[in-house]
Amino acid sequence: MKILVPIKRVIDYAIKIRVDPTKGAQGVQLSNVKMSMNPFCEIAIEEAIRLKEKTTAEVVAVSIGPKQCTETLRTALAMGADRGIHIETKADVRGDYIDMQPWGIATLLKGVVEREGGVDLVLLGKQSIDSDCGQTGTLLAGLLNAPQATFASKVDRGDDGSFTVERETDSGTEVIKLKPSAMPAIITCDLRLNTPRYPTMPNIMKAKKKPVQTISLEDMVKELGLNLDEVLTPKNEVIEVYEPPPRKEGEMVGDVMELLAKLKEKGLVA
Amino acid sequence: MRQFQQKLFCSVPEWVASGTRTLARIGNNQLHYQVGKGRIAPDRGSCRRWILSVPSSPSSHHERDGIQCGSQVLRGPTLHDLAHFRSILSRPDRSIITTLTDEASQRQLSSDSRAEELVRYNQDWTGEYRGSSSLVLRPTNTSEVSSILRYCHENFIGVVPQGGNTGLCGGATPLHDEVIISLEGMNTIYGIDGQSGILTCDAGAILENLHSFANERGYLFPLDIGAKGSCQIGGNVSTNAGGQYFFRFGGLHGTVMGLEVVLPDGRVMHLNMENVDDYGTIQQSKRIASHRKDNTGYDLKHLFIGAEGTIGMITKVSIACPALPTSKNVSLLVCDSYCNVLTVLKTAKEELGEIMSAFELMDYNTLSFVFAHGFGGNESGSRLLHDLLQSESSIQEPERLRPLYLLVETQGSNSVDDASKMDTFLTRLLDSETIINGFLAQDERQLKEMWTIRESCNPCVAQAGCVYKFDVSIPIEDYMEVAWEVKKELSVSMKDVDLIACVWGHVNDGNAHINIVTPGRFKKESAIDKNIEAAVFDSVLKRSGSISAEHGLGQKKNEALGRIKGENVLDVMAQIKGLFDPHGIMNPGKYLPKKT
Ligand SMILES: Cc1cc2nc3c(=O)[nH]c(=O)nc-3n(C[C@H](O)[C@H](O)[C@H](O)COP(=O)(O)OP(=O)(O)OC[C@H]3O[C@@H](n4cnc5c(N)ncnc54)[C@H](O)[C@@H]3O)c2cc1C
């Protein structure tokens, strides 16, 4: 089995986002900010490795973005992926919806699936935490005309090449079966699917020796016969980025009576 | 309630006897009479007159304990005092918690809930010490602290300063019915100087809040300990807390620039802290100035660092913060012998050099308890622990064959350089087989989880049973040896008692936290305590170590001071205490050994 896992490098989820209000749509500060693998992509990698451990599979991690994406790929390789493909964008191309958007990424990924050949499964995060679009997986399935399941909380592979996926919905969970087809199954991963492992030191060292193919976006576009504008020009325009209004500081009250008095004063209770 | 038999007592010339009541006048705030012979209480009619009584049984605590340094007997607060405190505090309803019942307090709460509220202040973090204070005062500014102390000083009322109450030696817990002065109501952070990086705040500011405050402004608060969510900077300074950043950023004697302290007689001193008046008010339109260098006179602030509330109360602190390092790396490493831990340390010094910011050790027993009791619901952390413990799956005997775990952190200013240093360091360790396994945090969450493991040692081991805690300084090469030696000795001398020795701490400072646990047995037993203490102290002192590296003395180790300090040193310490606190009201019965 061959599993493709696209992974995205985003601002570390534990870091406070800083917005420079003078920069308009480009306000989110990226320089000197800690970047890490999108947590949902990490879950996708973990799931791919688990499937690999159950059967046999080759896990290929793909990352589209600036030079430092190789670090993100190394993490995936240290966790257990077999090789990496890095489609390198120029340093000033932003991946957080400002320049690259899900349409462009999905178009590229479709090309990668075809270029690789023999891909049985594409596991993606359900969304990336920078733009929260949640569109790449579904767009890719649409472009490939492939079976898809989103928000997976459990994935099982049948002997016939089908995938049974438990998915999270607003009203509970739903189990669907992706029939074997000529196209790879597209599954996007939700939070409860698994708990990603910590890469061990020996595996981090081994990962250094695993192959990563780096190819510039321009070359890749050419090789895949795509149009650079189609991939790089955003379909939607970001008008403005701003910080959420600061939460008003709370006020401490001494006892219930005081609380009631305050609430009355503000007209919140009669 | 203790019973007092009122008796004539006339050993001081100023005392005037009248029947069974002895009324006294106090001149110049001086009162001299024999140690441990009685108790004075104010005459309700006048605060200048006193009733002196002598206990009916020799088991009165004052007689039993005597009071170090001072030569007078203290009393607990009365309703009369309560009325006075009500009159001097600006928000008495919030600032006073008491089980003494006068009309005003009856209006507030039922006596049960008041008693319940007091428990938190009377009980220490370890659960080992419990006081019976009936009054907690929570002043809101320096001038209130000053009025409270002056009154207690004049009236010989014992007080216990309390910060976050996380101290591990019972220092913030009353021995008897002293008044607890909690600084939780004083937590303003005044700001951080953009040029010098000196941060100034009230002593009651919580350490974790200081971290966020400094971080948001591009600075690092140079002290970090596991109790940061509750402990206060005033408590930290008073215990001279060490913590994981000690060797990188230095101790509080180096980072504390200025202090505001209130002496027991109510005087306020500003020690390298300018533009603050005697009421603790900052002069308008001026910023608080503390200088890095100040060689004008005796540097008194150092006396308050580590004084554990025995010579005055700290009300404001200035502390120098370095610029916030922008890159941080954390690795968790597994070694199969202590000898390899030493090699890791040496390699770290060579490869990581100045960017190394923590080098922490945890032994196998500790980590097993963290695995068993920690990480409620956090699967990712549990998984890491599981993988760590798996590294050497079978539990080996004897203990010295069990794996040891290290948390190594770097903090620097260039993420590419720092990562490459970490990489070289780890590659060397793996190639030389100095470590058998390890993990390098890939993102902030993993980094935080690694620290959570380290910070869970204390609470998780405490859940396993009664913990006999020791915090010692020993030569680095014997870091693990002391615990093993103690364990071996105890397995002979107390072979019926099931004991597990857990060790963690700051290896590079030679500071080991040795925790002997009786699993499943939660009651502290004094016979066991004595045996363990004797074994640990012997083993440490034999190596010329210190029996309290960073937790202080409190009421737990004050007696041991007599064993380790020379007579001259003890004498001068007692004189210092007497100079600042002539009535001995500050944290009585702690810190210094009892006078014999
Ligand atoms: C989980 C955990 C981890 C810990 N880790 C470490 C560690 O790594 N390193 C370390 O050194 N300690 C450690 N400690 C011990 C403890 O947290 C420190 O001693 C801390 O500095 C105490 O601060 P506090 O505010 O809780 O003080 P408290 O416990 O309230 O008081 C401690 C002493 O200081 C006095 N005091 C408090 N505030 C004042 C004041 N404003 N003026 C005068 N005297 C005052 C008290 O009377 C008492 O004697 C740990 C404790 C816990 C529970």
UniProtKB/TrEMBL annotation, chain A:
Domain of life: Eukaryota
Gene3D superfamilies (UniProt xref): HUPs
Pfam families: ETF (PF01012)
Transmembrane segments: none
Residue span(s) of domain Electron transfer flavoprotein alpha/beta-subunit N-terminal: 25-224
GO biological process: carboxylic acid catabolic process
Record's subcellular location: Mitochondrion matrix
GO CC, one annotated term: mitochondrial matrix
Keywords of this entry: Electron transport, Mitochondrion, Transport
Function description: The electron transfer flavoprotein serves as a specific electron acceptor for several dehydrogenases, including five acyl-CoA dehydrogenases, glutaryl-CoA and sarcosine dehydrogenase. It transfers the electrons to the main mitochondrial respiratory chain via ETF-ubiquinone oxidoreductase (ETF dehydrogenase).
Quaternary structure annotation from Swiss-Prot or TrEMBL: Heterodimer of an alpha and a beta subunit.
UniProt similarity note: Belongs to the ETF beta-subunit/FixA family.
PANTHER family assigned: ELECTRON TRANSFER FLAVOPROTEIN BETA-SUBUNIT, ELECTRON TRANSFER FLAVOPROTEIN SUBUNIT BETA
Annotated protein name in UniProt: Electron transfer flavoprotein subunit beta
UniProtKB/TrEMBL annotation, chain B:
Catalytic activity, EC: 1.1.2.4
Protein name as annotated: D-lactate dehydrogenase (cytochrome)
Enzyme class name: oxidoreductase
Protein family per UniProt: Belongs to the FAD-binding oxidoreductase/transferase type 4 family.
Cited Gene3D superfamilies: 3.30.465.10, 3.30.70.2190, 3.30.70.2740, Uridine Diphospho-n-acetylenolpyruvylglucosamine Reductase, domain 2, Vanillyl-alcohol Oxidase, Chain A, domain 4
Domain named FAD-binding PCMH-type: residues: 129-324
The entry's keywords: FAD, Flavoprotein, Oxidoreductase
GO-annotated molecular function: D-lactate dehydrogenase (cytochrome) activity
Record organism: Stephanodiscus triporus
Highest taxon of the lineage: Eukaryota
Necessary cofactors: FAD
